[in-house]
């Protein structure tokens, strides 16, 4: 291509998104995800800038340090394309896209960690584990489908927000209220884990003769209630974990 084209086709945008799935494939200690980001947006840069100094400068802009949550990075990838289109048309200075990345990668990393690692994954895992008594090994694909369906749909949504809104995607992400959604997912995880614990207590008690099943089920329920009360009163989590481990040892000795 002898000259850059300031319009991006749907095919180019799709290639950028698909490449963003490999953001961490070239992770390195110095730039972390910078090579993955440059690789992801290169189809757009190749279309926007003619071969030569302008394209080389555009690539170098995205070889600086970059690190964020790999899923919510889709929003930044879309925003980078949004800004690069305007830079190629002379509507913005190149510093704008550099500042955009620097401002968002930290806050979005914290948001992604809280929602995906601490909420969605435990919730999907707890649902899958709770379905083991009904589905057996089929609970594994249920977990994989649930988790990946949500995370891939959110990636697509965040990428589109970045593409269409640029800097204004912050407002859209804030309206999505991922922390509140994450709290609901953690509630789902707790309910599923509690139900599974009760089932295990009844099942093991029945296998041991049935006499201890009601006692074990009641003990699991009491432990869950006590843990909730302790955590709500800001008792350190490690204290609750030690208490649960102690009670498990007592129950094992009792059996």
What would your notes on this structure say?
By secondary structure, the protein is mainly α. It has eleven helices and no strands. The longest helix has 36 residues. The chain is elongated and about 75 Å long.
Task: Give a quick summary of the entry.
The chain is an all-alpha fold.
Distance between the termini: 76 Å
Mean pLDDT score = 84
What Rg do the Cα atoms give?
24 Å
Question: What is the element string, with H for helices and E for strands?
Answer: HHHHHHHHHHH
Unreliable spans are none
The count of β-strands is 0
The number of helical runs is: 11
Global shape: elongated
Helix content: over 70%
List keywords for this structure.
elongated; mainly alpha; 255 residues
Topology:
Layout: H1 10-20, H2 34-48, H3 53-61, H4 73-88, H5 95-130, H6 132-135, H7 139-165, H8 169-176, H9 178-207, H10 213-232, H11 237-254
């Amino acid at each position: 291509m002898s000259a850059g084209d300031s319009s991006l086709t749907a095919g180019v945008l799709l290639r950028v998104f698909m490449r963003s799935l490999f953001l961490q494939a070239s992770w390195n200690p110095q730039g972390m995800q910078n090579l993955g980001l440059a690789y992801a947006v290169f189809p757009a840069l190749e279309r926007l800038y003619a071969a030569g100094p302008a394209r080389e400068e555009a690539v170098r802009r995205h070889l600086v340090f970059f690190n964020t949550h790999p899923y919510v990075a889709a929003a930044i990838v879309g925003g980078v394309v949004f800004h690069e289109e305007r830079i190629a048309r002379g509507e913005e200075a190149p510093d704008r896209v550099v500042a955009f990345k620097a401002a968002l990668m930290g806050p979005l990393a914290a948001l992604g960690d809280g929602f995906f690692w601490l909420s969605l994954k435990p919730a999907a895992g707890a649902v899958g584990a709770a379905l083991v008594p009904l589905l057996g090994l089929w609970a594994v694909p249920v977990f994989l489908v649930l988790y990946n369906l949500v995370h891939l749909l959110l990636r697509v949504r965040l990428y589109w927000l970045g593409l269409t809104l640029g800097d204004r995607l912050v407002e859209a992400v804030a309206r999505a209220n991922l922390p509140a959604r994450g709290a609901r997912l953690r509630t789902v995880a707790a309910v599923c884990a509690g139900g599974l614990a009760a089932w295990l207590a009844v099942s093991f008690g029945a296998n041991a003769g049935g006499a201890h099943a009601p006692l074990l089920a009641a003990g699991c329920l009491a432990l869950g209630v006590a843990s909730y009360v302790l955590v709500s009163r800001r008792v350190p989590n490690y204290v609750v974990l030690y208490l649960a481990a102690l009670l498990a040892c007592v129950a094992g000795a009792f059996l």
